[in-house]
Specification:
binds magnesium ion, 2 domains, 6-stranded mixed sheet, 21 strands, alpha+beta, binds adenosine-5'-triphosphate, Rossmann fold, 368 residues
């Protein structure tokens, strides 16, 4: 069992030029045996949060508990080696002058394990990450992905209850990242270790996580399942960060039941099913995903005329920019076999039923 409770966690740094609230009032519950990702742009406080969980930093405020056992508070921090955690660092730093076996066995040597059982555990850890047989190779004789897996094996060999991973795939090429992504997920399911994973890559977070904490400016903007943060973003920062989105200003025209109608251009209104918080006439911002808009070359009843102003072919999808007569341009994603030319007229239909509506000018939660 290793669930983590993080409550009111805060950490500021003072440097010559300024004070930075690196982590501000972070609350996260990590369930035992789950995969939780801290996701956000550079500098949003991901590594600092992970280092606080690992016990390398003392919080200014707040607490970290594992299964009810206090590990960190401003007054006392259980040191990293006594927390039952492994950590894969952002630069994964394996020792270049040690071979694979020596890199992986290191943590067991520190724990003074007899060499026969240490050897067995290293073999098991290397098998878990598909590196069996490469024990005597040096890092310079390994691919980037293999070096990455050495770093993983090194943290797995000590049999942690919790594994903390800081952007572990960031140095790999796109294809390898994708494969390692699947391997990591399988590894988590097979070992039952609780993973806390840091990335700034939203696709990686969506693919891997049970829960995602989207962070910005030191604060958790939203904590939810991949579906929740993608389909029901809590604010415009989350909507924007979780993939491509059209964030367009609009005005509430009608309210009925929980929903209503929002005008996003003189010739385009959209039906929205969750407008409880807004009154007719209110100015809002509507987040519409590019895949929620359909294009047709011929007129469609209820559709709105637009002109294709740009086109990007991406292989598995086609991306179009459709500009309305009033000047509003919307980004649209379609099946790649649908082919329209730049300058061509088309009709667009917006399926905004499930889109998100935010109060105009309401930003994300900011550091105090
Ligand atoms: N030791 C430190 N001293 C001063 N400021 C720091 C220190 N560590 C981090 N910071 C600042 O705290 C903020 C959060 O840093 P952190 O390393 O947690 O970000 P991050 O989300 O991991 O970013 P990245 O994606 O670039 O790794 C940044 O503004 C950073 O400059
Ligand atoms: Mg970082």
């Amino acid at each position: 069992m290793a669930g983590i409770s993080i409550r009111g966690l805060s950490k500021s740094f003072s440097s010559r030029d300024s004070d930075v609230a690196a982590v501000a009032d972070v609350d996260i519950e990590v369930k035992d045996n789950s995969f939780v990702t801290l996701l956000g742009p550079s500098g949003c406080g991901k590594t600092t949060t992970l280092r606080l969980i690992a016990g390398y930093i003392t919080p200014d405020r707040g607490t970290i508990e594992i299964d009810g056992r206090p590990l960190s508070s401003p007054g006392s921090v259980v040191p990293p080696e006594r927390r039952g955690m492994g950590m894969v660092f952002q630069n994964y730093a394996i020792w270049p002058h040690k071979n694979v076996f020596e890199n992986v066995v290191f943590g067991l040597k520190i724990r003074k394990l007899p060499s026969a059982s240490a050897r067995r555990k290293v073999e098991e850890a290397l098998a878990l990450v598909n590196l069996s047989g490469l024990e005597t190779r040096y890092p310079s004789e390994l691919s980037g992905g293999q070096q990455q897996r050495v770093a993983l094996a090194r943290s797995l060999v000590v049999e942690p209850d919790i594994l903390l991973l800081d952007e572990p795939l960031s140095n790999l090429d796109a294809k390898l990242r994708e494969r390692m992504r699947l391997e990591l997920k399988e590894l988590q399911l097979r070992t039952g270790i609780t993973f806390v994973y840091v990335t700034h890559d939203q696709a990686e977070a969506l693919a891997l996580s049970d829960q995602i904490a989207v962070m910005n400016l030191g604060r958790v903007q939203q904590y939810g399942t991949p579906f929740e943060v993608y389909a029901h973003p809590a604010n415009r920062m989350v909507a924007d960060f979780m993939g491509l989105v059209n964030l367009v200003p609009g005005k509430v025209r009608e309210r009925s039941g929980a929903g209503g109608v929002v005008e996003i251009a003189p010739e385009l209104t959209v039906k929205v099913d969750a407008l409880d918080a807004f009154a007719p006439g209110e100015t809002v911002e509507v987040a519409i995903r590019p895949e929620s808009i359909r294009l047709a070359a011929s007129p469609v009843p209820g559709g709105t005329w637009a002109t294709i102003s740009n086109h990007v072919f991406l292989g598995n999808i086609s991306e179009y920019f459709a500009t309305l007569a009033s000047g509003l341009t919307l980004r649209v994603q379609t099946h790649p076999l649908q082919q329209l030319k730049v300058g061509e007229a088309c009709t667009i239909e917006v399926d905004a039923t499930h889109c998100s509506v935010f109060r105009a000018g309401a930003g994300e939660a900011k550091a105090a």
